[in-house]
Structures are given as structure tokens and as C-alpha cells.
Design goal:
Radius of gyration: 30 Å
Bound molecules: guanosine-5'-triphosphate
Number of helices: 17
Strand order of the largest sheet: 2-3-1-4-5-6
Number of domains: 4
Order of helices and strands: EHEEHEHEHEHEEHHHEEHHHHHHEHHEEH
Low-confidence stretches: none
Length: 408
Amino acid sequence: MREDVRILLVGEPKVGKTSLIMSLVSEEFPEEVPARAEEITIPADVTPERIPTHIIDYSASEQTDDELQDEINRANVVCVVYDVNKESTIKKIQSKWIPLVNGRTEKGNRIPVILVGNKSDLQGASSMETILPIMNQFMEIETCVECSAKNLKNISELFFYAQKAVLHPTAPLYNPEDKQLKPSCVQALTRIFNISDLDNDEILNDTEMNFFQKYCFKNPLSAQALEDVKTVVWKNMSDGIQDDGLTLSGFLFLNMLFIQRGRHETTWTVLRKFGYDDTLELTDDYLHPPFTAYLDVHRCIEYFGYLGYTTIMEQESQTAAITVTRSKKLDLEKGQTQRNVFLCKVIGLKGTGKTAFLQAFLGRSLKMQSEMGRDVSDFTINTVQVNSQDKYLIVSKTSDEGLISKQQ
Ligand SMILES: Nc1nc2c(ncn2[C@@H]2O[C@H](COP(=O)(O)OP(=O)(O)OP(=O)(O)O)[C@@H](O)[C@H]2O)c(=O)[nH]1
């Protein structure tokens, strides 16, 4: 998650940008306002998403075009403010403001935009009819909100939507042009579905759905809520429910529904719980919790990450799967060990029978080995009984000529 959020307000002169900011801060409408409000920072503990938020005003009478462009480049989200009663300020959204904010940006990197229709207290009719075609034309517009700095309507909502557009962005999840989840989002959600499908029957039954729910949101769903979820899916998708459980298509549909209804934070909470960052890559912290050891523990921990070890075993990180024992030297001194896994290296010149030896450790006779071909691993592992306890022995072969000649 990011450390702070920068919200920039732009729009035609006198639409009420400064008044909106001052109304938010003082919770009353300021009769007199300066041309431009000072930058304000809202501390984390009073914002709904608990993240410090900076709000920046713009005024054409105080700033040059270069200064404006500079502020646009620094912003995480831009609120384009218009006056709901002035058609000319709405026209400028398309002809001036959106091109200025995102005209030179690549499709994938566009800054999210919120349209803000101010002065709704003076309003004759809603501006929504004029605004909807603009929203359909520019995919970076996250949402539109009508508000009034004068009677304090929807002011905190407007800043909340702006914050949400940065923290739970639509762009990585959903393509509004074809109204589909993006492939990387489908891939991530499929992995999450498979991890949550504990019995691997490709259906999330009630127990598995509640396991998933508890893992992501701390609380299980009530029996009624579970039924309601299944009913919504079943009504919209014939193959979304099977044997009274949720199929993968049903699970994907449910997430698409959250997104289409503006509840991206639900899908983002799920994705983040399962280790994804803002670009839907698994985070380094998730895949590689701090740990070092011999053999390829690094990769082993990575596999545990992909396979959802932390979720299934209800652990903080994959390192819980690994036990660190005391040093080998100490074991040898004391003549005893807590280890269950031992590594044994088999060395010998080429052709001395190392591979056959390793395979024989798995109980494979020479005849079986000749049927299998030569394409076998340089490692084998099996259990051995020591003092009537099962221990694991990893046998690895090396034909490193240098090493062997030194030891000959
Ligand atoms: N009725 C009504 N008037 C408002 C509202 N918001 C702002 N105004 C008035 O609109 C005028 C312009 O407000 P500002 O906040 O200065 O507008 P601005 O967009 O910051 O203007 P510039 O600094 O020129 O870019 C002022 O007279 C405000 O009192 C509102 O919600 N309702």
C-alpha cells in the first residue's frame, strides 16, 4: 500500500474549488475565500482509509500553466470540478481538463479522475445526463459526484471517492470497454479460488466459502448471507453454482459484480490478503519472507507462497513450515540431534554407478531404471528408520571432477 495520497482539484474559474476544500476543513461554508487554498494535509487517523492525504487547490489567477502541469504530474488523483448549472464548465471537461491531465499519458498509466459537480444547492435539473456520455468516453473517470460546498452536501464523500480511486484502483482489475475482468486479475483470482478449494473438487462449498471469508475479512458469513450470495450468482449465471457450491466462474462473476457496483475495495482486500501488490504481482515480502538456509530454501518458500501455504495452514508466513535446528557441530559434540532431515552427498567418478545408487534408494531395481531412461534427478529422498523413528535422507550425487580429484 502507498504511503500517502495527493488529491488535486482543477476546473474552470469560480466553480468553487477553494470553497470545497475550505468547507471540508472547517465544516462550514466560507463566505469569503482566497483565490487559492494553501495545501492541506489530513492526518491518517481522520481519513476513512487511514492514510495521510494532501489536498491541493489550483487557481488560474495565481498559477502558470507550467506550475499546473507540475502539480498534475505529482497528483495521484485529479478532481475535475464543474458548476452543475453552467454548461460551459461541463464542456471544458472534455475539451480542456481531461486532455491536460492525461493527454500525454500511456493508456495503462492514466491518472484516475473524479468528476465533481459543485453548487448542487442552486440546481435546476441533475447534470448526470450530460455527464454520463463523458464518463463513457474517458475510461480514467472513476466516478462522478454532485455536491454543494454551500450546504455541505457530499463533501466528505467526494474526498473519500478520490482517496479510494488511488488506493483501490479499477484499472488493474477491470476493463470498462469490454466490461470484463482483466486477464491478470482472472489469473490471480483463479489461484485464490484454487487455494480456497481445500478438497480440490473445483467447487467452494459452505465450509470453504467461510474459510475464505474468515481469512480475508476476519468474520464468517451468516447462513443467510451465504444463501444470498449463492442466489445472486445462480440468478445471473447458470454455471456459477453447482452442487450447492460456488464454481470458479461463479467466483469470478461475484468479483466482477463488486467492481461494477463500485466496491473494488472488497476485491482488493482479497487480492492483498493473498499477497498481491497494486500491479497484481505477488509481493516480494509474501514470496520471500526473510530466511536463509542450504539447498534451495528460497525457491521452496516461493512454491509454498504460490500454493497458499499461509492461508491453508493459517500461518503468518511460509517460514512457519521450516524448523531451524542447532548447528551440526553442536550435534556432533553432544552425539545427538533434533534433525529429521539429513543431506548425504554421493561422490564418485563418471560411470561408477551414482545414479543407480540414488535410484536404488527409492527401491528401483536396475531393470526398472533401464525402463525409465536416463532422465532422472540428481537428488532422491526417502525415509529411513533410526531408533524406530522416521528420518528423511536426501541423497544427492556430484561428479564435480575438481572436488573428486581433491578427495581421491
Ligand atoms: N451557491 C453556491 N455557491 C458556491 C458554492 N461553492 C462556491 N460558491 C461560490 O462560488 C464563487 C467561487 O468560489 P471559489 O471557491 O472561489 O471558486 P474557485 O473554483 O476556487 O475559483 P478560482 O480560484 O477562480 O479558480 C464564490 O462566490 C463562492 O462563494 C456552492 O456550493 N454553492
